[in-house]
Amino acid sequence: MSPLLLFPDSARASQGCVLVHCAAGISRSPTVAIAYLMQTSKLTLDAAYKQVKSCRPSVAPNFNFLGQLTAFEQQLS
Question: What is the pTM of this model?
Answer without folding.
Answer: 0.86
